[in-house]
Amino acid sequence: MWGVKKFMEPRSIRNPYHGIDDLQSDFGDSEEPVSQTKSKRKGDFLDKVQPGDFVKRKRADGRADFEEEHGKMHRRMAKMMSMNAYDRHKEMINLYYLSYPGATQLLNRKVQEEKTDLDVLKEHHKFVWDEEDNSGAPVSWEKRMAKKYYEKLFKEYCIVDLSLYKNNKIGMRWRTENEVKEGKGQLICGARKCQETAGLASWEVNFAYKEDGRSKSTLVKARLCSKCSDNLNYGTQKRQVKQKKRAVRRWEKERKRGKRGSDDNEEDGDGDGVKTVKNEEKDQPSTSTSSTLSASADIWEGPAPAETEKTMSQKFWIFVICFWSGCLAQNETGYGDLKLEFVQTLWRHGDRAAIDELYPIFESNWTFGGGGLGELTPLGMSQMNDLGTLFRKIYVEDKEFLSHRYTGKEIYIRSTNVNRTIISAMSMLYGLYPPGAWNIQGVDYPNSIDWQQGFTFVPVHVDGDNHCAATQQCKCDRDDELQDKMAELPEVQTVNARMLAMNLRMAALFNVTEDPDTFSDYPDAWKCQRNWFNDTLYEKLPFYNEALFQESQRTFAPYKHMMEGHFVEPAILDGIDIAHEIRVLQSGVMLNEIYERVRDKAECLKSGENCTGFFKGLKFYGYSSTIDGWPDTAASLTIELYSNPENQYFIKFLYRDNSVDDFSDVTSKVCNRAEYCTIEDFRKIAEMYKPLPDYKTLPLAPS
């Protein structure tokens, strides 16, 4: 072994004992001899690179720099990713401080210019997003956030701020989810700082406000305790609504009211039907001629309990079902298992514009419903839509009487040939058959992206010029004779004298010189104007105040009632019962049309398969009319026809007093506490008020 001699390359291994490869040095890559390298370093000071000199670098040097920077970047990214958000923020701020000396002032916050989410909501919030706002998605994120917040609010009842009620300034907002869960605004008083739960009353408010530089108004509801209700109506004295016992006869109440005559606070309008506000407060006389009451503080509607005394403005409806001569005899028939067969309903149109121009509000100011006098307002459209929604709940959802989708043979809607009644019918139908998944695309509405999904039209049939039942004003020669005869009654002469005196006084204030005794446009005009232009009335008419408005309504109320056949004293002259004949002319035609449809539907049901006419599939028949007698807007009377297994037929009467209440069953008042009326009883009363031989012929049925 010792004799073997091994030879190795001199530079392959420097330390053979450890077997280590040759170590590399910083000069290992240099191809120049060592002697040349040393000599070069001696002269380095002569070739020193000055600042600004361009140095040509080798390609190997650039690659090394890239790898170094690349490695630094990855190390920095790894370090940042290992940090939490706060540490990462501190690291970046420290780098900024070190990299930009003196620029730290740019990091100072300008708190006064910052906006929080609350600031954005305050700036872009809308009390009500109208159709223009809903036409498309808001462009800016601020408006999108404001609309999203609005959609989360609960808009059935309002929260009311009464802190400035003495200044007639009322604040309102919608309820939040937490307030709904707590019952605030419904089970608890809706005043902002009130927690009272007893004695709550519902109020309907035509809330007027300014938003985006525009005057707006909308109908809202609020529930308040008695104390907050007084604050809501500060400066006014409201007529107290007392609940009566069911056993008290209605006609006894009316006789008591009749003794008060024109002292009652009643809202009446022209013969075309004017908005009536039930239980509306009567403002105390004011000595100021420049009052600044706002519209939002003037127009209130109080709650209408289910069993309350009916005002004279509702007498038309009670006339239709009680017929002025006494209630029907009590029906002792056993009802058994009854089935709903047919529904007839008639309603008054919604809130409208004034019929006549009266300074300072002219036709050009009434821009609602296409613009013009007497047109339906957005408030009226909403009222009628609510009525349709109520019909849908009763007859589609609860009783499952009508189909979810519009079926042509089931429903027939009729209207007088007046814009406001036609649009009222259309608005009601939008609530009865709203857009929804129950309507089939390509069947009920076009298969087009331009068509509102789920929306379908329902036809409204318009009366001809010769049809007077829906309007009641069936003019004939006998009507003219009755008007002349009525003027001889002492009661009418007293009322006429009061109206004449007020007409002359108002004509002087309005500077009317031509026929001042017939200047009588102001009662109806003011009633509509104050709903929308109350501030303008106080600004332009120095003599106008609430006391004057109430005086005008009280002065004309008795005359309007007499035109419908309502007299305090017996209206019999020369053997003619003027009151009875006026009622026959005003309501007899409509009443008999309702009875005849009930009779024809019952006969159709009895004939079974042999019935092939109009009434075979008909279930719902509706009137949209300018009903006289001054019920409230969107008030409605519904007559339901039922059958039992023995093919006996019965009638039920339902009445809705205003645009807020639900329907109440008034059959017991009509049928002497019976649950249903018979068709025979209905026939007897209808014939009692039927014009004979017809409404166009002079002779009438004896009273």
TrEMBL record:
Compositional bias segments (type: Basic and acidic residues) = 1-12, 249-263, 272-284
Q: Which domain of life is it from?
A: Eukaryota
Q: Which organism is it from?
A: Caenorhabditis remanei (Caenorhabditis vulgaris)
Q: Which reaction does it catalyse?
A: a phosphate monoester + H2O = an alcohol + phosphate
The family classification in the record reads:
Belongs to the histidine acid phosphatase family.
Any Pfam family from its record, for instance, is Fra10Ac1
Q: Which GO terms describe its molecular function?
A: acid phosphatase activity
Taxonomic lineage is:
Eukaryota, Metazoa, Ecdysozoa, Nematoda, Chromadorea
Q: Where is this region: Disordered?
A: 1-47, 237-298
Compositional bias (Basic residues)? 239-248
Q: Which InterPro entries match?
A: Acid_Pase_AS, Folate-sensitive_fs_Fra10Ac1, His_Pase_clade-2, His_PPase_superfam, Histidine_acid_phosphatase
Name of the protein this chain belongs to: Uncharacterized protein
Q: Where is the composition biased (Low complexity)?
A: 286-297
